Automatic annotation (TrEMBL):
One of its GO terms (cellular component) is nucleus. This is AIG1-type G domain-containing protein. The lineage of its organism: Eukaryota, Viridiplantae, Streptophyta, Embryophyta, Tracheophyta. GO terms for biological process: cell division; chromosome segregation. Keywords: Cell cycle, Cell division, Centromere, Chromosome, Kinetochore, Mitosis, Nucleus. It is found in: Chromosome, Centromere, Kinetochore; Nucleus.
């Protein structure tokens, strides 16, 4: 791989990483506090850590998936060939081999489409993961409400028993 092609490959990877960084920015503690006002401070802190871990994991998974996709699609090789082709065309001013341009265009469109499909699939997985997390949070809320209700019933029962004992005396 020549220096220019490796530079293009590096630029492609860097652009992807910058793009997903914008999509997967971690939320602040204040965002979690505003979004879940009924949670206790401890619950919000655990949720904040969980969300940040999820964002970090998703970021790493997307980067890994992108790298695998680039390897499977032989992106570095394609960039090398494109670089060689561009260099040949710039040296041969009279060249009019339109078929090569069409082939390159078709390959690039296919790679783009595959990349979009992969990212859409990854996004769907992330949305499913988010929905699972929301369901778990709701379950935790319900369990917390049930615990509070049980505690209230126990207190009322104790109070009622205390009142009966005082009336019996």
């Amino acid at each position: 791989m020549d220096l220019a092609a490796s530079g293009r490959n590096y630029a492609l990877h860097k652009s992807f990483k910058n793009a997903i960084k914008c999509l997967l920015t971690a939320c602040s503690r204040e965002d979690v506090k505003r979004a879940f006002p009924s949670f206790t401070d401890g619950e919000r802190e655990r949720l904040y850590r969980l969300l940040n871990n999820v964002f970090i994991s998703m970021h790493a998974n997307l980067e890994e998936g992108f790298d695998e996709l680039c390897q499977e699609g032989q992106v570095a090789t394609a960039l090398d060939k494109i670089g060689d082709f561009v260099e040949e065309q710039s040296l041969d001013v009279l060249s009019s081999d339109n078929n090569s341009f069409e082939e390159v265009e078709q390959k690039m469109l296919r790679l783009k489409k595959d990349g979009i499909e992969y990212l859409a699939g990854s996004l769907k997985k992330v949305e499913e993961s988010n929905n699972d997390m929301k369901a778990r949070i709701e379950l935790l809320k319900k369990e917390e409400d049930l615990t509070a209700a049980r505690d209230l019933v126990n207190k009322v029962t104790q109070w009622n028993s205390a009142c009966r004992n005082n009336n019996d005396v």
